[in-house]
Amino acid sequence: MGKLEEYAHHAEECQHKADRAKDDDEKAAWLRLTQSWLWMSHTEAQLILEARSIDSDGSSHSGNAH
Question: In the chain, pLDDT over 90 holds for what percent of residues?
């Protein structure tokens, strides 16, 4: 399991726990954890895309001026 899949799995688990929370505070805590896992997944996806845009010679194709 890659990082993206792992993070998505954790986010899904946290969402399920939020859905079954007994009170608003518990639900809010699980939802914050869900958001954190989703943010990490998004960040990891961006890093993967950036890494793919770099040639073997080290030049970037992201359109940023160097």
Answer: 74
pTM (2 decimals)? 0.77
Burial 14-32 (b: 16+ CB within 10 A, else e): bbebbeeeeeeeeeeebbe
Q: Which domain holds residue 9?
A: 3-52
Residue 63 lies in a domain: no
Q: What is the DSSP letter of 20?
A: T
Q: What are the tens digits of pLDDT across the range 35-52?
A: 999 999 999 999 999 998
> What is the SS3 string spanning 29-40?
HHHHHHHHHHHH
